C-alpha cells in the first residue's frame, strides 16, 4: 500500500495528481502556517514553497508543534520545512527565511504558483500578498485566528471580494512571533513584560518539569549545545528570582534582562542582517540612575525628557492618582518604578512562597512592574514609550492564540484548496470558526468583488523590466496609447488623458505635454522616479466618466534575462480593459442575530473608494493636476494568525 493510498481513494486519481503537481506557496510559518504545512505534506502536496521572516521563540512551542526547544532562535521557515519533510521525505519544500515584501518576490514570482496560502500575522503583509495575488492572477486562501475564532477566505480576482473590498474597523492587533526577539511596537514590549518576564520572575517555577523535558531532549540526541544554552537561560532566571528579596535584587534582574540578554542578542549577527530590524541598546542600571547614560537620537525622540523633579513622586504609589498615571516618565523614573515594583512583588512572594503571583491590571504592584519593564524594553529597542494609563488599557485586553483554533483553521484551508484545484469555484465558501457549541463552523457564500474597491477593481499587467532603462514615457506611449493588437498595446489612443500614480505619489497628469516639469518625468527612468521592482504603477484614464477605462496597474517585476536588449518584456496578449461600471452597493447581511454578534469583527459592509487628496504627494513641482487617492483606506483585518488582539 502506498503512502497516499487513502488520500487517492478519497480524492480520486486525477485530483491527487493535481495535488502532487501543483506548486503552492505558504506565506507564514507560525501558528496556522506550521499546522498547514504539516497538513499539506500529509495530503500529498509535493511542490511547496514557504516564506517567513521570524525566528522561533520559546513562547511559540505550546502551539506550533513543528518546533522544539533546540530550535529556539532558528528561522521558522527552515525548521518547519525540515520537520515537515520527516512526514514525507519525497516532498520538495523550498524554504525562505525572508520578508515576503522583498523585491525578489515580485508578481511574476507569485505567478509560478497554483495557490497561495496566507498565514500572516500583520496587516501590512496581508495587504501586500493580497495585491500580489491580484496582480499575478493567482488564487489566494487568506486565513486568521483570534482566541477561539478563526476564518478562511478564498480570494479569486474577478469572482470574489479581495482582502481590501471590505471596510474593517481598526482593531489593535499584534503578532507574538517577534515579541521575544525583535519587538517593533509598544504592544510587543507590553506582552513580553506581562506574559513572559512577569511569569518568569513571579509565576510558578516548574523547575522539575523543565529539567525533565531538557533531559529527555538530550537523551533523544537533540543539539547538545542548544540544550545547554537553554539550561543556562533557565538557571540564570532561577538565580535572579532567588535573589529578588536581596537589597540589590532589582539591580540583578535589570542587569540580566536589559543588559546581559541584550548583549547576547547583539552577538547573534545573522539576526540583525534582516532589512528593517533595529539593533537594541544594552541599558546600564547605575548610569541611568546617576543620569550619565546616553540615549541615541531615536531613543530620545521616543522617550520622555529627563525630569528630576518627578523622581520624588514615582515611588509614592500610595498617593498615586490617575493624573500621574497619565504622565510619561523619564528613563530614570522608569528605573525607579521598576525597582520599587520588584521590591514589593518580591516581598509578597517571600511572605507566601507557595502561591505564585498572577497579573492583574487592577493590582498596583503588578501593573507598575509591567509598565516599567515594557517601557525599559521599548527604550532599549528605540520604540515609543507609553504612559502607565495607556499600558494598563492595552495590557488588560490581550487574547492569546490557541493551538486547536490554528489546527482547525489549517484543516479548513486544505478543504478549500482542493475545491480551487478542481475548479469547483461555486463550492467555495468563507468559513468562520466560532465558540458556539451549536454552530462551531459557519459557511457563507463569498461576496462578489466590490466595484469600488481600490485594489481588485483594477486591471493588472505584470511587466518584467529594468527600472534603470525603462522610462515612464515608454510605458505610456508604447503600451497604453499604442494601437490594440495581440502583440502591441492597449489601444487607448494618442490623445488619451492619463494620470500616473505610484502609491500616493502623482507622477504624471493629462496636460503634462504643456508643462516642462511633467515632460521631464516622461523622459526619466523608473529608477530616477523612485519606482523599483515590487512596486505598482497605476495609470488612470481621465476621460469623461461614461467613457473612461478601468485603471491599469503595472506590477513592476525584475527582468531575469540579463541579455535582453529591450528594457521591458510583456506577456501577450494583454488583457482587455473595460470601461468602469457605475458604483453599486453590496451589503453583507446575516439573519441570525447571535451569529451576527459572533462575526461582528469579521464581516462589515462594503465601502466606496474615498476621493481623498490628502495622501497624494506631487512629484516634480507644483502641479495644477486633479489629485486622486489611488489606494483604498487603511483597512485592517480582525482575525490574525498567531497574534495578540486588543479588543475595544
UniProtKB/TrEMBL annotation:
The keyword ATP-binding applies. Residues 8-455 form the THIF-type NAD/FAD binding fold domain. GO terms for molecular function: ATP binding; metal ion binding; SUMO activating enzyme activity. Residues 302-392 form the Ubiquitin-activating enzyme SCCH domain. ATP binds at residues 28-33, 52, 60-63, 76, 121-126. Pathway: Protein modification; protein sumoylation. The active site is at 177 (glycyl thioester intermediate). PROSITE patterns: UBIQUITIN_ACTIVAT_2. InterPro entries: ThiF/MoeB/HesA, ThiF_NAD_FAD-bd, Ub-E1_IAD_1, Ub_act_enz_dom_a_sf, Uba2, UBA_E1_SCCH, Ubiquitin-activating_enz, UBQ-activ_enz_E1_Cys_AS. GO terms for cellular component: cytoplasm; SUMO activating enzyme complex. Pfam families: ThiF, UBA_E1_SCCH. Keywords: ATP-binding, Metal-binding, Nucleotide-binding, Ubl conjugation pathway, Zinc. Zn(2+) binds at residues 162, 165, 453, 456. GO terms for biological process: protein sumoylation. The keyword Metal-binding applies. Heterodimer. Belongs to the ubiquitin-activating E1 family. This is Ubiquitin-activating enzyme E1-like. The lineage of its organism: Eukaryota, Fungi, Dikarya, Basidiomycota, Agaricomycotina.
